[in-house]
Amino acid sequence: MTLPFEPVPAEPAKPKPERPPLSALGMLITSNIELGVITSRRSLQATIGASEVGYPCARRLAYRLTATPGCNLGDPMRLLIGTGVHLALEEIHHRLDRSAGRFLTEIPTVYRDIPGQADLLDTYLHTVIDWKTCSKDRLAKYTKDGPPANYRVQLQIYAAGLIEAGFDVQQLGMVFMPYDGALSSTWVWETKPDPTEADAAIDRLDSLRGKAPADVPATPDRLCGYCAHYNPASTDFNRACPGNTRKEPVQ
Predict the structure, then answer these.
(1) I want to staple 118 with a disulfide (CB 3.0 to 4.6 A). Which of 142, 158, 169, 200 is the partner?
(2) Do residues 117 and 128 make contact, with C-beta atoms less than 8 angstroms apart?
(3) 232 lies in the same domain as 163
(4) What is the pTM of this model?
(5) Is residue 59 over pLDDT 90?
(6) Domain at 171, CATH number
């Protein structure tokens, strides 16, 4: 068959430039940062917190309840970005408040023995705010499907704890900010306080207490690689889980 045009030959793939190996100084710097992340207060927290209660995977919760040591540290870069944004936003609202009492930041909360720390309470708008950083791709998914269950549960536990402590909370906002996009791309998901959502998640957590992780079903998903107990080669499910690398292991 004769083509009505002359086909353009495909360009050969360009080899990726080789990255020079880290120098001794570079290795020292990155190892210090990694050590700082894994020894942070949040990383060493023994009690399961509000940000974890809503995890879809029950086995992941069982590992935390049994204080099983983690085996998958992961790269700390995303955590560093999220922590940096939280610190910057805390400083901004502290400076804007000028001791007026409108913006309360990093407020410790407890609800049904579940500890947490609310990012921001706007006492004028009676609104609890939770900051979230994500990629533009994830932001597009959240705007379409809404935030994941563990994010919603986390925010509801914060609200329930603040209400129990006597704060007037009437509205909740989850603020998604793309770390690879513009500030104008920020999206806010809004809802009302609903203690039934927090209670249902905590009741589920309580039902797992005293159970060995191997006796609890896993719910593998695309986030398995971010779980501290993920090991694709694991056969001892009381220590680690192979996650989404194959079907749920037969007990």
Answers:
(1) 158
(2) no
(3) no
(4) 0.86
(5) yes
(6) 3.90.320.10
**In this model, does residue 249 exceed pLDDT 50?**
no
Asked if 175 and 168 count as a contact pair (C-beta separation under 8 A), the reply is no
Determine what percent of the chain is predicted with pLDDT higher than 90: 77
Give the chain's domain count.
2
Taking the alpha carbons of 27, 226, 146, 105 in that order, is the dihedral positive or negative? negative
Q: Which domain holds residue 251?
A: 213-251
Which residues contact residue 107 at a Cβ distance below 8 angstroms, ignoring those fewer than 6 apart?
117, 118, 121, 162
CA distance 72 to 220: 16
Using CA atoms, how far apart are residues 202 and 50, in angstroms rounded to an integer?
A: 9
233 with 135, same domain: the answer is no
Give the list of residues 6+ apart from residue 121 with CB closer than 8 angstroms, or none. 103, 104, 105, 107, 127, 128, 129, 162, 167, 169
pLDDT at 14: 66
3-state secondary structure the chain: CCCCCCCCCCCCCCCCCCCCCCCHHHHHHHHHHHHHHHCCCCCCCCCCCHHHHCCCCHHHHHHHHCCCCCCCCCCCHHHHHHHHHHHHHHHHHHHHHCCCCCEEEEEEEEECCEEEEEEEEECCCCEEEEEEEECHHHHHHHHHHCCCHHHHHHHHHHHHHHHHCCCCCCEEEEEEEECCCCHHHCEEEEECCCHHHHHHHHHHHHHCCCCCHHHCCCCCCCCHHHCCCECCCCCCCCCCECHHHCCCCCC
